[in-house]
Design goal:
The chain is an alpha+beta fold. The chain has helices spanning 3-13, 49-56, 67-96, 113-133, 144-147, 212-223, 227-238, 276-303, 307-346, 352-378, 387-402, 410-419, 436-450, and strands at 109-110, 137-138, 157-159, 165-183, 192-209, 251-259, 271-273, 347-350, 382-383, 423-425, 430-433, 462-463. It folds into three domains: 3-80 and 366-450, no CATH class; 93-269, no CATH class; 276-331. The radius of gyration is 30 Å and the shape is globular. The termini are far apart.
Length: 470
């Protein structure tokens, strides 16, 4: 059945269901670029698994009366995929435990530096795999300069020392725009204006700071200074961090609807700097205030014969200087409040909570891809050479049924269905698909065998002798 027929049948059978998902805008790294050259279709499917399940199992699509069996199979497959990601999550949490800043468990094992390095490498690789299965797109380290822009949606000038990190991963999903309403200065703040804000619907960061000694040696080489001066530089930079932040830990954060021009906010060592406008304002007000105060003080000193008058004049000048310094500090504090307030509402999860959320999202993306591909293959004779055409047909169906423009990952979905024995590729490239009832029985068989094939846990490190530490 062609995609046009599938879409027509689904829309006719379920015409009373309104599409809930908004179109996904093309992904781009450039915070301000809307040009066609920068547009890239994402793999993320912004529609729920339940919406797909309802539409893909309409009776009109299964003329042999297999709609009930098809729905049963897809639910089986959904639970089986959840189990697969639960296994991955258990292993990931075990690898992360030595690096977790939030653990409240006793430390019963110790790890050598080589073991920690190997586990850290595995942690980064497994997190990257989980994110890519969840259809997140990675920001290449070479592109960090593109997203770390000086133009801030919240009116802040932010700076990040990216060299302070030993490992850093940044992934995003859902590069789109949202509309915000602001008071219009041109209407004396009595009217409103709409502003389009480019955002990342989901923004992930994982980072580990370099050890203090390593960063000191780097600063010595970069700035050609001695060790004492380098230590002072690194200490000043790390004063921006809370005392609890340590290079022994790996920190994981997930944010929502983060303006693309404020990605610097997600880093722990973000430094808020004054904008050019503020520098000019403080220069003018401080210069004029101190200048007038100095002239007045000099005049009083010239005319003063009483020491008390002299002291009062100097105290007045000191008061002016203190007021200007207070204005400077208050403005900086206002900046910090703006950053903290907005980060509070953008934050979704931290550390192990991010892992759990990402595993759920990755499983959902997998099952949606598998349902779409299975339904396409189950109703046609297909060959591996037809894969590109099938990919295009699925993308056209999603566009017609939900109004979304995505890059469907057909090869990834096919690989999983082949691994589970739902689809078989023959020597001539022909793809054979189990009918719904047999496919459900196949998943049932896999469930029966999963505990028998449970792998042994590989213990790393050494048990701490004596009483464990907290």
């Amino acid at each position: 059945m062609a995609v046009a027929d599938i879409a027509s049948t689904m829309n006719g059978a379920a015409g009373h269901h309104a599409a809930q998902a908004a179109p996904s805008a093309p992904a781009t790294l450039d915070p301000h670029s809307e040009g066609a050259a920068a547009q890239v279709k994402e793999k993320f499917l912004p529609v729920t698994r339940n919406a797909l399940l309802d539409r893909l199992t309409q009776p009109a699509l299964w003329p042999n009366g297999d709609a009930v069996q098809a729905r049963r199979f897809m639910r089986y497959l959904d639970y089986w995929r959840r189990h697969a990601y639960s296994v991955k999550l258990l292993d990931l949490e075990q690898v992360y435990e030595p690096f977790s800043p939030d653990t409240d468990l006793l430390h019963t094992r110790s790890f050598s530096p080589d073991e920690r390095a190997a586990m850290q490498k595995r942690l980064v690789a497994q997190m990257a795999e989980l994110l890519e299965q969840g259809n997140f797109a990675r920001v290449n380290p070479a592109d960090f300069h593109v997203i770390l822009t000086k133009d801030s949606h919240y009116g802040l000038d932010l700076h990040v020392d990216i060299q302070a990190f030993e490992d850093v991963l940044i992934y995003y999903r859902g590069a789109t725009t949202i509309t915000e309403r602001h008071r219009d200065i041109r209407k004396a703040y009595l009217g409103w204006r709409e502003q389009k804000v480019p955002v990342f619907q989901r923004l992930f960061i994982m980072f580990k700071l370099k050890p203090f000694d390593v960063r000191v040696r780097e600063v010595m080489q970069e700035r050609k200074v001695d060790r004492k001066e380098a230590e002072g530089i690194v200490k000043r930079l790390r004063k921006l961090l809370p005392d609890t932040v340590s290079s022994d830990y790996v920190y994981i954060k997930l944010f929502k609807n983060m303006p693309r021009s404020d990605v610097e906010m997600i880093f722990p060592n973000t430094k808020v700097r004054f904008r050019l406008f503020d520098k000019i304002k403080f220069g003018v007000t401080a210069g004029s205030g101190l200048g007038v105060g100095a002239v007045g003080t000099v005049s009083k000193i010239a005319l003063a014969s009483n020491p008390y008058t002299l002291m009062m004049a100097l105290a007045g000048l000191g008061g002016i200087a203190m007021r200007q310094a207070s204005n400077f500090i208050n403005q900086r504090n206002r900046y910090m409040v703006v950053m903290a307030r907005n980060l509070y509402f953008h934050s979704m999860a931290d550390n192990r909570g991010v892992m759990t959320l990402l595993a759920d999202r990755a499983e959902e993306e997998d099952i949606k891809e598998e349902m779409l591909l299975y339904c396409m293959l189950a109703r046609r004779q297909a060959n591996i050479r037809d894969l590109k055409a099938i990919d295009t047909e699925i993308e056209q169906y999603l566009s017609q049924a939900f109004g979304i423009d995505v890059n469907f990952d057909v090869e990834d979905a096919l690989g999983r269905l082949k691994q589970e024995g739902i689809v078989t590729e023959h020597d001539d490239g022909t793809l054979t698909v189990l009918p719904p009832q047999d496919a459900a029985a196949r998943i049932d068989k896999l469930w029966d065998a999963c505990l028998d094939q449970l792998p042994d846990i590989v213990e790393e490190g050494r048990e701490i002798t004596g009483r464990p530490t907290g």
